[in-house]
Amino acid sequence: MKRIARLALALGTAMLMTSIGHAEQKTFKIWWFEEPTTAQGIVWKKALEEFKTKHPDITVSFEQKTFQQLQASGGMILNSDQAPDVLEYNKGNATAGLVASQGLLTNLDAYVKKEGWDKILNEGDFVLSRYDEKGIYGSGPVWGVSVFGEYVSCFYNIDMFEKAGLKPPTTLEEWVAALEAFKQKGLTPLALGAIDTSGQHLLASLAYTKADDAWVQNYQGLKAPLDGAPYLYAAQTLVDWVGKGYINKDSTGMKDPDAALLFTSGKAPMYVSGTWNLGTFASTIKDFKWGQFVIPTPKYSVGSTGNLWVVPKASQNPDLAAEWISLTLSPKYQAELGNAGGVPIAADLSAITNPIGKNAAAVFKQISDKNGLGFYPDWPVPGYYDVLNQKDTGLFQGSLTAEQFVEQIKQVYDDAQENQ
Questions:
Q1: Which residues form a coiled coil (predicted)?
Q2: For the whole model, what pTM was predicted?
Q3: Judging by beta carbons within 10 Å of its beta carbon (0-12, 13-18, 19+), is residue 35 exposed, middle or buried?
Q4: Omega within 30 of 0 (cis) for the link into 169
Q5: Tell me: the pLDDT tens digits for 200-228?
Q6: Residues with Cβ < 8 Å from 201, sequence gap 6 or more?
Q7: I need a labelling partner for 41 at 20 to 30 A (CA). Which of 12, 142, 234, 245 fits?
Q8: What is the pLDDT of residues 145-199, one digit of tens each?
Q9: In terms of domains, do 213 and 281 share one?
Q10: CA-based nearest residue to 235, from 345, 391, 69, 106
Q11: How many domains is the chain partitioned into structurally?
Q12: Which CATH number is 95's domain given?
């Protein structure tokens, strides 16, 4: 009997040690797609080290992803056992809204109260966190949380502008005049990745110069049939700008990083893109002064609250995921985001000493205070991101007229509404 008791004790001890060992091996998985040199990439890496220190008994596993990876395969990943515990995901009907409607995300309403996120963010900051049963933004449960803001602007080479006797334009006419002035000096004024996001962001910005409140709300709310007039103006303007040499015809095969390199190397005076470049530009541009101006539209700018931290339905550690979100939303890391050149969503502006971050946060507040965030052109329709990039390229290549462009994107848009 004693021998049996000793064996039982030994077995129990072994099982206990196995259990303890298993607990020590618990893994918490985080994914994001911000590049390491961006403000988010820099600050989240610091937060990651603090999170690891707070949880020495947990293996915190981080994986760097790309925007394109999750744009193309996010739904499939979330619907598998490969999903992480928390990840950065693109906001909007076609992305976060779609996977929320498919039941692939965790409802975060309880955490909003428990973690006090509703005390940090206002209801406007939650607009792109909420999706209804059809995946349409603006109402329903909170499925993700943004901890930064973003907007599209035109980055410009201050030294080049001063040498040419130009000031940042405040009207579309002044912008065209600046483009023409640089062209007359033998420079291609505008660097652009036509097959990437900057092409469709310029297109949408030009469309917003002809868009009122009703058009933007109907467009983003997938209210078919699409009124194509603002896009017709934008598409024809792009065709005209290519013809006049304001945009290089080589843009048809250019991606955003290549276009950005033309700007950062001082070869192009302007580059249309988003605030996600601020950290990279701050760390890489050493040979000239640079700034940004809001693309002159009556009200709306392409932009929004930032990408969302979402918790997959299959997450094994939702409480830890909520803790991670709270850490990146804390005053400490919000201030660090601004000081890294990013756009914090809930920072005390007095805590930001970096002039780039302070200016970006102030501009974002200026846009959001007038309800001028027009969101992104691909949001209303799943797969519209690729459609707009493809049709954009057709405009630059000359294989599509402005009329054909509008006809083809309208067909996809109207079909999506009918199939809801």
A1: none
A2: 0.79
A3: middle
A4: no
A5: 999 999 999 999 999 998 999 888 899 99
A6: 152, 272, 273, 274, 302, 376, 377
A7: 142
A8: 999 999 999 999 999 999 999 999 999 999 999 999 999 999 999 999 877 889 9
A9: yes
A10: 391
A11: 2
A12: 3.40.190.10
